Structures are given as structure tokens and as C-alpha cells.
């Protein structure tokens, strides 16, 4: 990170204060307060200000939100507030082109995607803060300054919790969009193709119901693979940025993705053979 020792010490003090504020906010949230997210916005603004002050924002980050009077500006763009997030872009385009959303529902979805993008950026900021803590302690090796292992541990725990929350929320949004697809019985195009062929193959009603259950299983396995692949992409991105603390998680995800990919390929071939050849028109 290249910060002078005095600057690192100042950063550490501000991080401790930020940690106290976040714990206070979490307590209020558990009590059902801050329903409009106003305190959360203030917490995020303060976090971004710390990042900006100590040069931790990076070249592509947005400017920290500013506060004017009692109103907090959140830098939300009406239609393109998550355009740099490829996963959310794909969901948004799928929702507009293939899902049966009304205009009002699309606007609500856009707001949900925007909020998710903000949560994702907050997680990335926290990853950088953990790295800043670790850099500080590495610079103190050999000195008589005590290390704050407890503080770093809390930040790591918070980082892991936020990652889980972001992953769960993205999966929820993905399911919400795909469930409203025009071919709504199945999410993946391969499964929809198999189901279309099964219905045209002269199967009895009972046989079709059995096949539908098998295809639902196939569809869920594909969704699981896609979710793991997305987590792997995120982990690989962070690993390439030097966040070596997720190396073990990256390796586990890579193994799981390969296993799911082999299983899906084998199951697809089995179902394809069971349903029979394509009917060429």
C-alpha cells in the first residue's frame, strides 16, 4: 500500500471508529430500526470517505456520496447504475427481453439491482480495508507496536458475512428474474429444449410427469453450477488483485465447478438419449 507509518496509524484509528459505528448500526437494524436505510447510507458514506482519504479507492471507483443538509446523495443513476456489473447487466437484459414483467415491476427490479450493486461495492471496500489492516501489521513486524489481531479478525468475519449476504441476495434476484421467463417452467435453455422435445415425443401423461421431475432436477443442477461459477469468477478476480486470503476458497470453488460441470454434461447426455432424437421439420 506504501503508506507512511504515521498515516497507517491514523488509518487504524479511523477503522476502529468505523467498526464501532457499524456494530451500532447492526444492533439498531436487529431492533427493526433504520428501515429506510438512512443510517446505512451514512455508514457507507463514511467508509468511502476513509477509502478516498487514504488513497484506497482505486482508479475505477465512483466518487464518495456527499451529504447536503439532512439529505444523503447516493449517486444513483436512473437507468445505468450497475452498468459495470456484468452479472447484473445480464439479469437486467434477461428481465427486459424474456421475462413477463410489467413496467412498474421492471422499475422495482432496477432498484433492487441497484441496491445489490451498492452492497457489492461495500463488500469490495471492506476487502480493501482488510488488506489495509494486514499491510499495517506487516509493516509493524519487528517493532514494539502491538498488533490488533482481534480487530483484523472482526473485519475478516464481517467481510465473510457480507460476501455470504451478497451471494444469497444475487441468487434470490436471479431466481426472481428467471422464474418470470416466458418459458417459465424451466430456467436453462437446454432444459427447455428437452422438455419441448419430450412433449412432442408421444409420451403418456404419467411419463411426461416423470420426465418433468427429472428435468427439474437437471435444471436445479445447472443453476447450482452457474451460481458456483459466478462465485469462482468473483474469487478469481479478487485473487488476481492480490487478495491471497481467498486462495483456499478459490481452489475449493474451482474443484466444485469442475465436478458439477462433469455431472451436468453426463446428465444432459442421458436425458437427451432417453427423450430421443430431434424431430427435424
Keywords:
Receptor-associated Protein, 1% strand, 281 residues, single chain, MG_RAP_rcpt_1, heparin binding, elongated, 8 helices, 2 strands, 3 domains
Task: Tell me about this structure.
With 281 residues, the chain is mainly α. The protein has three domains: 8-54; 79-138 and 147-184, Up-down Bundle (Receptor-associated Protein), CATH 1.20.81; 188-280, Up-down Bundle (Receptor-associated Protein). It contains eight helices and two strands. It has helices at residues 5-30, 38-53, 86-98, 103-139, 149-179, 189-199, 205-240, 247-275; strands at residues 67-68, 71-72. Strands 1-2 form a two-stranded antiparallel ribbon. Strand 1 and strand 2 form a beta hairpin. Helix 3 (86-98) packs antiparallel against helix 4 (103-139), helix 4 (103-139) packs antiparallel against helix 5 (149-179) and helix 7 runs antiparallel to helix 8. The longest helix is centred in the middle third of the chain and has 37 residues, at 103-139. The N and C termini lie far apart (63 Å). The model is unreliable at 58-80 and 141-146 (pLDDT under 50). Keywords: Receptor. Residues 83-281 form the Alpha-2-macroglobulin RAP C-terminal domain. One of its GO terms (molecular function) is low-density lipoprotein particle receptor binding. Residues 4-57 form the Alpha-2-macroglobulin receptor-associated protein domain. InterPro entries: A2-macroglobuin_RAP (IPR038003), Alpha_2_MRAP_C (IPR010483), MG_RAP_rcpt_1 (IPR009066), RAP_sf (IPR036744).
